[in-house]
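Here is the promised in-class demo. Please do not try to memorize the tokens; focus on the logic of going from shape to residues.
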């Protein structure tokens, strides 16, 4: 059925414009929230754009990055609507505050797809993301497994470095992690990190080290790889004899290298290609008046939103070859620089 849908979308999207009438081109607008996290510019944007072009060569694409500025994103959405966007694919900077923007689109009969972050307070066409609570559960279980392997489960204190409070996914990650770790570890300090900023995460980790003492920290629950890098920098600066296990998310290149060399314990691999391509398929379908059935629904507090939720994958050093490299997310040559060549050889990555 998926193949039939794609074929149908491809044919219908690219017919009817044979006069070369640029003004009649269907317009899809993609809005991403920031560029501090590597994935958005390196993966989400190019994969989404390539899929749209493959399905609809005549479709016009508008792209905006808000640089973690909610007011800037509001201006971008309004500009896209003024330019005649037919569909908005919106990864909101502040997902709890963009309902008025979605309402502006609805008044113009422009459907909205919430990309990666669930928008609350209003009904809209689709939500495409990952099972975010499951992400947190995987991070929590991985940390618990690492602590148990070291004989540190129930000993010392764990630091939680959560994501941005304006991103509803952060609350889901936190919920999932706490559901695994509560009652099994002592949480010494917990932070919500504005803008998912690695710099702020480093400062938070420095505060935790000062408050708890270097030797009392047995693990770090970091919600993503960028912040894990900041926390690791703080621990190195503080002179940790051995770094405690630390989690991450997004399978960033630097994080994979840290995992191979033992500085970071694990990451969550999100199949961003599947997320971006599914969103592109839905956007092209919507500009052609189609509305594919969703796999499930998610309650955003106001309505049950048709949703496609993809499965996350927990990746430790021994899993990199069979997931990241196998899928072509990164090539072995990109991961295995001179500094990590020996670690790659140990894991059979070449």
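The designed amino acids, position by position:
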């Amino acid at each position: 059925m998926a193949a039939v849908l794609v074929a149908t979308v491809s044919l219908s999207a690219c017919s009817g414009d044979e006069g070369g009438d640029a003004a009649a081109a269907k317009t899809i607008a993609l809005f991403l929230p920031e560029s501090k996290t590597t994935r958005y510019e390196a993966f989400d944007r190019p994969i989404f754009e390539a899929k749209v072009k493959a399905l609809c060569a005549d479709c016009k694409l508008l792209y905006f990055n808000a640089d973690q500025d909610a007011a800037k994103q509001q201006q971008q959405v309004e500009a896209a609507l003024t330019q005649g966007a037919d569909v908005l694919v919106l990864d909101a900077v502040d997902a709890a505050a963009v309902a008025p923007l979605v309402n502006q689109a609805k008044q113009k009969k422009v459907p909205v797809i919430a990309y990666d972050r669930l928008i609350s307070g209003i009904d809209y066409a689709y939500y495409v993301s990952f099972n975010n609570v499951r992400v947190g559960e995987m991070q929590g279980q991985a940390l618990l497994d690492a602590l148990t392997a070291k004989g540190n489960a129930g000993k010392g204190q764990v630091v939680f470095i959560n994501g941005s409070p304006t991103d509803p996914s952060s609350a889901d990650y936190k919920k999932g992690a706490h559901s695994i770790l509560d009652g099994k570890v002592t949480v010494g300090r917990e932070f919500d990190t504005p803008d998912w900023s690695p710099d702020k995460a480093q400062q938070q980790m420095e505060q935790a080290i000062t408050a708890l003492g270097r030797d009392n920290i047995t693990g770090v629950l970091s919600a993503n790889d960028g912040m894990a890098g900041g926390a690791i920098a703080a621990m190195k600066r503080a002179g940790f004899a051995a770094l405690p296990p630390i989690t991450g998310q997004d399978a960033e290149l630097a994080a994979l290298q840290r995992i191979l060399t033992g500085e970071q314990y694990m990451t969550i691999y999100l199949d961003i290609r599947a997320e971006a391509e599914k969103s592109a398929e839905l956007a092209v379908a919507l500009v052609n008046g189609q509305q594919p059935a969703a796999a499930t629904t998610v309650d955003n507090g106001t309505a049950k939103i048709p949703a496609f939720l993809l499965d996350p994958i927990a990746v430790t050093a021994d899993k990199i070859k069979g997931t990241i490299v196998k899928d072509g997310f990164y090539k072995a040559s990109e991961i295995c620089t001179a500094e990590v060549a020996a670690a790659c050889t140990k894991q059979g990555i070449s």
